[in-house]
Amino acid sequence: MYRVMIADDERIERLALRKSLSKHMAEVCEIYEASNGREAVRIYEENQIQIAILDIEMPGMNGIQAAEEIRRRDPECCIIFITAFDAFDYARKAIRVRAMEYLVKPYEEEEFLNVMEEAVRLTQKRIAGQENGRSGARPAGGQFTDGTEENGTFTGEQEEEESQGRLAAVSHRIASYISMHYMEDISMQDAARAMNYAEAYFCKLFKQCFSCNFTTYLTRLRMEEAKKLLACPTVNIKEIGEAVGYSDSNYFAKVFRRYLGVSPTEYRAKQSKNQ
After folding, report:
1. Which domain holds residue 269?
2. In whole angstroms, what is the distance from residue 192 CA to residue 197 CA?
3. Do 127 and 168 reside in the same domain of the chain?
4. Is there a contact between 78 and 96 (Cβ–Cβ < 8 Å)?
5. Against a cut of 0.90, is the pTM above it?
6. Backbone angles phi, psi at 9, to 5 degrees
7. What CATH number did the domain enclosing 54 receive?
């Protein structure tokens, strides 16, 4: 079981997130709740939380401040921010504490679950690395920069790329990169570095281009490619999972079932019957 904390000062928001996790991920998540940032840090310390879901706007200590405290103690905890404000300054601060993802309300449940499944996968990978005597953690400082001027403004070049005339070209570049690498273990940070974008800026730009976050876009693409491969009866499920970026066949089957409502085997049988 992975220890997951939901920190939000609004009880109804905590209940909604708990309900979603209990419905779709109860078998892998042990859920804790906090109503403010200070309580979140305390619960993190007492229970060695592995995945922290933090609302940014909380009284007293906010989500960013809580994340900074958690990050000082643990460079590897998966941090997911949730906020009602789509502000670039928030996104930049989220990247500075190396948040895994930044969700803006209102978001689709699918988007949240995609992010959670990726957080579980990364946590599982980290644990496996530790058991093998090596840590998958990234350095806590220096490596992650937001690429903006000190006053928080974009450079000239970045403002120019936000123009509608170039947004389509940027979208094509990003989509092309992902289509070439979706079968690999890639993250939003990997894509940003490969395309020479600051991570905070890339996060904002990606949502402008595709109206969803990187994890959701990647999962949808992988599932669509898996559907195509399942049309070939001679390729087994494990090989298909590996071909679309999932080394763990059980994890692939779980993501596929949530995306399409049936397992890969059931989907293949249904398609064969229809044909």
Report:
1. 221-274
2. 5
3. no
4. no
5. no
6. -75, -10
7. 3.40.50.2300
